């Protein structure tokens, strides 16, 4: 927690109100949870109303790009074409693709096909064919504010097995979202996601999870899906984070391509479903 603020001092949130009439009771509630042993967010993880509005403006670009891809993705398209669409649309709307050059990542979007769990490289040599499933992971910077979401797409005639994986992954996200409530816990969401995946015969990747987002591309908290209710970070108003379970057919193990050190694959059966929301 932040250093002690006087009752009549300006509130830390920037509202210009006195602390006692703004966030003092809020902080007291967080502190009471901390002394019970719970992990709690620091003030720098909480966005104020102005910041949230600016993050939403970034989201408008992010969602517009994914809407366009949803309307136009098709069999015979290369994943390099998707990368170009993301770059062109994002920059035309005044934004910057957040993945581009992030820690050396060389593309504007991640396109993960079939057995790729995440961070798939777009390529002119990867041509979408009927029966493929693909995750398009789009992240946007607008005036220094970050947004981050993705969608799964089924290309052409997809098997019932793959359709079910994609549907259950979506249901996992929705069940997770239902658990995101002020003064609950990240573990409430994580267990809901985990239980639904395993009840349907799937596994959830352990090593890679969601994250805070908004003022930076990746912020605390780290968001996992192998957790228990009542555990992990306390959820309070002002937090923004992604829910991005990576749901596998078969075993939970994954591996990273040793050549590029980015692309992550399932270790066993050749399919992985994934969805992101913030």
Label this structure with key terms:
single chain, alpha+beta, 12 strands
Task: Walk me through the structure.
With 278 residues, the protein is α+β, with helices and mostly antiparallel strands. The protein has 5 helices and 12 strands. The chain has helices at residues 24-34, 49-72, 79-92, 160-178, 186-199, and strands at residues 96-97, 110-113, 116-118, 133-142, 145-154, 202-204, 210-212, 219-223, 246-249, 254-256, 264-266, 272-274. The strands form 4 sheets. Strands 1, 2, 4 and 5 form a 4-stranded antiparallel β-sheet that branches. The protein has a 3-stranded antiparallel β-sheet with strand order 3-11-10, with no helix packed on it. A hairpin with a 2-residue loop joins strand 4 (133-142) and strand 5. Helix 2 packs across helix 3 and helix 4 (160-178) packs antiparallel against helix 5. The longest helix is centred in the first third of the chain and has 24 residues, at 49-72. The mean pLDDT is 94.
Q: Kindly provide the radius of gyration, computed on alpha-carbon positions and rounded to a whole number of angstroms.
A: 20 Å
Specify the biggest β-sheet. 4 strands, antiparallel
Strand fraction: 15-25%
Distance between the termini: 24 Å
Number of strands: 12
Shape: globular
Structural class: alpha+beta
Low-confidence stretches: none
Number of helix segments?
5
| Overall residue-averaged pLDDT value | 94
The helix/strand series, from N terminus to C terminus, equals: HHHEEEEEHHEEEEEEE
Oligomeric state of the chains in view:
single chain
Q: Helix share of residues?
A: 25-40%
């Amino acid at each position: 927690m932040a250093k002690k603020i006087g009752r009549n001092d300006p509130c830390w949130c920037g509202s210009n109100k006195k602390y006692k009439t703004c966030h003092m009771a809020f902080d007291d509630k967080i502190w009471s949870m901390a002394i019970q042993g719970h992990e709690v967010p620091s003030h720098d993880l909480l966005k104020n109303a102005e910041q949230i509005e600016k993050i939403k403006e970034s989201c408008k670009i992010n969602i517009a790009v994914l809407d366009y891809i949803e309307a136009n993705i098709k069999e015979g398209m290369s994943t390099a074409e998707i990368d170009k669409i993301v770059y062109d649309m994002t920059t035309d709307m005044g934004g910057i693709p957040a993945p581009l050059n992030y820690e050396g990542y060389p593309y504007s979007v991640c396109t993960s096909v079939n057995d790729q769990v995440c961070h798939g490289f777009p390529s002119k040599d990867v041509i979408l064919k009927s029966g493929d499933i693909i995750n398009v992971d789009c992240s946007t910077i607008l005036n220094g504010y970050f947004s981050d979401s993705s969608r799964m797409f089924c290309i052409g005639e997809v098997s019932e097995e793959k359709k079910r994986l994609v549907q259950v992954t979506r249901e996992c996200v929705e069940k997770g979202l239902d658990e995101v409530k002020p003064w609950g816990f990240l573990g409430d969401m994580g267990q809901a996601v985990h239980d639904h995946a395993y009840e349907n015969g799937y596994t959830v990747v352990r090593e890679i999870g969601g994250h805070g987002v908004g003022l930076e591309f990746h912020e605390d908290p780290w968001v996992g899906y192998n957790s228990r209710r009542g555990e992990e970070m306390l959820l309070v108003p002002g937090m923004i984070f992604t829910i991005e379970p990576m749901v596998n057919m078969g075993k939970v193990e994954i591996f990273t391509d040793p050549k590029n050190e980015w692309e992550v694959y399932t270790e066993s059966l050749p399919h992985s479903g994934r969805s992101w929301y913030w």
